[in-house]
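Anyone up for a design puzzle?
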């Protein structure tokens, strides 16, 4: 097999999507966990989730193959473009899935149950849920949440109601951004609908309003958290955390705006990796959190 062919098989596994699995570290960071062993376990679960996710992406691409071949951008994916063979790719995906689950159970049986739940939800999404209006968005947001839950359970970090509520609204907003970008592309192509999905181009306005509502809700939850008794156990100067609110509004509002302009051509978290404004916003947020300690 040539280097080019190996590269195509690697691309088919979508390694750029692994960045989303960094969410397993979120509970540790939020709880100010400093134990090296906890981060090593989380790193192992990051690898396990990434392997399982790649296996699930292979299955999804197999199921979506007819639609992807007619799609403006997805037709360039290795499988849709005919650059990889289906059977070897399917075997590779199955091996990664089995290996990822095995690694997860070796690290933590309770956390491995979350990885298994992630796999079941992803398969259900590929087979059926992605064709159901709003249920697909809720499922995508819950897949983000399962990653966070995996990290929390693995190292026994309790998740506060504030943490769960905040991330629920953030994840819903990000899932909506993903659909907004797809609907913009649909509108620009002159079509009203796309095969395998439950939305029409004219639904973009409704999704934008729903995304904005979730952004607002996430900021409200964060402001309530700042005023809660729990915040004083982690921060000496919690009043400085108010500066996070405009950063949240800017980052998520800008993401929504860019999606409506067709500039977010990937998963929102993956898009963030190559977006300088997101990096600067993240750095500013870290400075604020450090100042509040």
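Challenge accepted. My sequence:
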């Amino acid at each position: 097999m040539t280097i080019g062919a190996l590269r195509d098989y690697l691309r088919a596994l979508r390694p750029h999507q692994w960045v989303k699995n960094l969410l397993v570290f979120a509970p540790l960071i939020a709880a100010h966990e400093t134990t090296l062993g906890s981060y090593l376990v989380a790193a192992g679960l990051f690898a396990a989730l990434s392997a399982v996710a790649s296996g699930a992406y292979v299955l999804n691409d197999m199921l979506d193959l007819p639609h992807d071949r007619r799609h403006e951008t997805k037709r360039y994916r290795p499988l849709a473009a005919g650059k990889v063979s289906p059977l070897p790719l399917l075997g590779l995906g199955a091996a990664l899935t089995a290996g990822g689950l095995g690694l997860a159970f070796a690290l933590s049986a309770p956390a491995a149950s979350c990885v298994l739940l992630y796999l079941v939800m992803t398969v259900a999404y590929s087979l059926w849920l992605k064709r159901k209006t709003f249920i697909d968005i809720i499922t995508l947001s819950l897949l983000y949440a399962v990653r966070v839950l995996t990290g929390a359970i693995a190292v026994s970090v309790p998740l506060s109601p504030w943490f769960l509520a905040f991330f629920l609204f953030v994840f819903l907003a990000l899932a909506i951004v993903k659909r907004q970008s797809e609907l913009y592309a649909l509108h620009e192509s002159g079509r009203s609908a796309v095969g395998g999905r439950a939305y029409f181009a004219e639904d973009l306005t409704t999704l934008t309003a729903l995304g904005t509502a979730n952004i607002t809700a996430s900021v409200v939850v964060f402001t309530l958290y700042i005023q809660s008794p729990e915040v004083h156990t982690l921060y000496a100067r919690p009043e400085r955390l108010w500066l996070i609110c405009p950063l949240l509004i800017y980052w998520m509002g800008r993401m929504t705006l860019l999606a409506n302009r067709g500039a977010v051509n990937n998963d929102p978290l993956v898009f963030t990796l190559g977006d300088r404004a997101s990096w600067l916003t993240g750095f500013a947020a870290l400075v604020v959190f450090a100042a509040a300690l």
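A detail worth pointing out: The mean pLDDT is 86.
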